[in-house]
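Look over both lines:
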Amino acid sequence: MDVKITEKKESPLLYRTEIMADITGEKATPSKVELKKKCASILKADEKLIVIKKITTTFGSTNAKAELYQYKDEKKLKSIEHKEKKKEEKKEGEAEEKKEEAKPEEKKEAPKEEKKEEAKK
């Protein structure tokens, strides 16, 4: 896997550098772990301070583009990225609640079907 940094943009208010990279390799989409290690070695930074936001590929191609953030320190990373994780957890929690609500309804329907079958007999 070859990684080429195409753009670097400083974002001082968020204590990070926003990085765009082009990726070429054998696989269509590289894993985030592999990409994080490779970018950390290129940028000479700690892996803990790099966050991969997005990896984009086109259908049938082995080329990809990635959007990464390199933070200045771990404290700032946790304070900013923690908000993102809370949003994802809320979405997952809402989906689970909907599934749980659907299950009791299924149980209620089952006895009604049994009563209909008994009435037919």
